[in-house]
Design goal:
The protein is of the alpha/beta class. The protein has a single domain (about 5-184), classed as Pyruvate-ferredoxin Oxidoreductase, domain 3. Helix content is about 35%, strand content about 25%. It is globular, with a radius of gyration of 15 Å. About 40% of the residues are buried.
Length: about 180
């Protein structure tokens, strides 16, 4: 029986300071913990916080030939400029998760799976901490595409988060669970 290669090419995009790079790095770290091949390629403007930021994460069960791709199986976008830039680059039947509190113009494609997640609203009002909104979106992605197990993501969070922030782990896990529930 011919084995089919598993490869997920993903883009995470938004403003610097929204946790876009952290989201991608955490997913990449979790995938490595599960023994998968991974590439993580960040890109950001010189101003970082407030400027545009994105990262490409590729996860596969085979060696990855190049970290640079121009179309994606999944995208997580946190602002309007990123939605405009990357919506057209999601592959047909791919996944687009967008932050629906701040983005006012909805995606227009109907050949992809689109998920509106009010992450800013949920993080601010229900979890009382805007900084975990990225974990809400990551939880939603992991539930939708199953690229890593939630348990591995939580373990990666415990290992990757600097010790001075370990008191925030329960809140981050709560945000991941909330994101899973929003699409589950």
């Amino acid at each position: 029986m011919l084995e089919v290669e598993m490869l997920q090419e993903m883009i995470f995009a938004g403003f610097g300071g929204q946790g876009v790079l952290s989201m991608g790095m955490l997913l990449a770290y979790a995938a490595m913990k599960e023994g998968k091949e991974v590439s993580w390629m960040p890109s950001y403007g010189p101003e970082m916080r407030g400027g545009t930021a994105n990262c490409i994460v590729n996860i596969s069960d085979q060696p990855i030939s190049s970290p640079i791709v121009s179309s994606y199986d999944a995208g997580v976008v946190l602002n309007q400029p990123s939605l405009k830039k990357f919506e057209s680059r999601i592959k047909k039947d791919g996944i687009l998760i967008w932050e629906s509190t701040m983005i006012k113009e909805s995606p227009s494609r109907n050949d992809i799976k689109v998920y509106a997640i009010p992450a800013v609203e949920k993080a601010t009002h229900e979890l009382k901490n805007l900084k975990v909104m990225n974990m809400l979106l990551l939880g939603a992605l992991v539930k939708i595409n199953g690229i890593v197990k939630k348990e591995t993501l939580v373990q990666a969070l415990k290992e990757a988060l600097p010790e001075r922030h370990h008191h925030l782990i329960p809140l981050n896990v709560k945000a991941i669970d909330m994101g899973i529930a929003l699409v589950g």
